[in-house]
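Quick log. Single chain, no ligands specified.
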Amino acid sequence: MTTKRTAGNNEHRYIPFGIKLMITYSLFIIIPVLLVGYTANIIFTDSIQERTREINQGTLEQMKDNIGYKLKDMSRISGMLYFDNNLASYLRHYEEGWVSYEATTKQLIPKIQTTIEAANNKMRLVVYLHNESLPEIYHNYMNNDPLKAEGPLFDLYHITRLKDASWYKNYPKERYGTTLQWKQVEGDAKFGHISLLRRLVDTNNPILLEEIGFVRISVRLTDLLESVDSEKIGKGTKIFATDENRNIMFSSGETDYKLGEALSEEKLDGHWVIDEEIPQLGWHLVALVPTDMMEQATRKVRLWTFFISIACCIVFALAGLFISRFYSRKVSKIVRVLDSFQEGDFQKSIQFKGKDEFTRISVALNEMGRNIDELIHEVYETNIKKKEAELESLQAQINPHFLYNTLSSISRLAKFGEVDKLQRMVLDLAKFYRLSLNEGRTVIPIKNELEQVGAYINIQRTKFGEGLQVLFDIDPDILKFTTVKLILQPFVENALEHAWYGDHINIRIVGKLEGEMVAFRVIDDGIGIHPETVLQLFDPAESLNVGYGIRNVDGRIKLHYGAEYGVSIVSKRGIGTSVNVTIPAYIPACPD
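-> predicted structure:
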């Protein structure tokens, strides 16, 4: 039985052409504008932020360089004593009395005063002497800050005063000309000082490097770090000088951190961190720049970009709305005529002014309306005849080729005396042809269709042996329904001809009841089908050698049951193929 489905009075539900046009316009005009604006905003803000980072980084590097310059200046001052051979000779002279007094007053003290005067910052110079014949000269600072005292700040002590000092005991081994150390010793931490520690050695014997004295040059941390100013980076910035243990030794900017407190990672949250090492001290300059400061630098650019993008979107949206409404009205008229055609009214016509594509469409629709009823009837009858001819052609192609291969297999079985297999194959062959012919009927019970496929598979099992495994998964509820014949065997044949993956193949034939439809699936684990080939299988323009049987089955199902039924294919290369066949659940079977 042939069934046609109509949708004459069904309400069409779709997105109007004007909205589609507006959406398309938005996708290709407004959205790119937004994307361009967004991209420009990111580029500009990133550029500004990167520039701000570079400036702040450079500012901190300048601070570090200024500190390094002062450290080198102190090293130069200590070198005036370290590399003075005459001073070393006086310090090795152990005669007491007038000789010692003269060496102290005329050589040692002037040398120390010259060294202090060469410094660019106020400093205190302490020299510890191994030569105890030289007198000690020192000030009594009364437990006050030595650098606040008036006059030249120097002291001469005997080295015995350092015998219990841990910093002296742990001082590193001497390397000529390079060994020195910056460290807070004695009362430095209390008064906010830091000292340069350096040996005085016998330069006349650079191999032994015998220690003849020890130099300590103390300076204020504030003088050493006077270039560290958070205002140079920006308001709200904090700059810390931390020692090798990340303890805060100096700070600039409003902060509630205490000196000596460790700078933990938790305190860095909400800030952009710039870290510069001061190699001579082993300290770090750490600048904490608030992220809000970085945001302020980019907020103006972001706002301007946003307003420009919104303004462009509004202008383009208004233009798009006008264009979409203009064309959607014409399309709506065409749709109303098409709806009339679908309802069977082929007399309705449409007219457009002007000479454009819509005018040509209206002329074509008016002409089509006068002839469409006759054409539909003619095409319908022609398709029925065509599909029946294709079915006969398909059967004519399958039967001789299949019969020839089967008879060849029967001949081999007879030659080798395999009577049981020969008998089964002859019986299956007879059953296959009986079910294929089916007294000339086109619509048959699903049970017969499955038996016909089973007979075909039994014949092929004899040919392929253990290499072919077939599993039937059939819902018994579908056996009471009917189908157009020969809708499964072509797909099993295709799998056996094209899907082999090595020397075996597994095929699963599934039949299920899904609502008011019967769904068949022919699944194999073969080599799969290339996506382009899947498209070609359903393309009528392709050669009949490509997908002829598939298009034939799909076309016959659609002709008998409607366009919503038919064949679909899902395939993955190297995984396998699933052919899906859907037909309506019809009872009872009706012969043609």
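Residues 1-10 have pLDDT under 50 and may be disordered.
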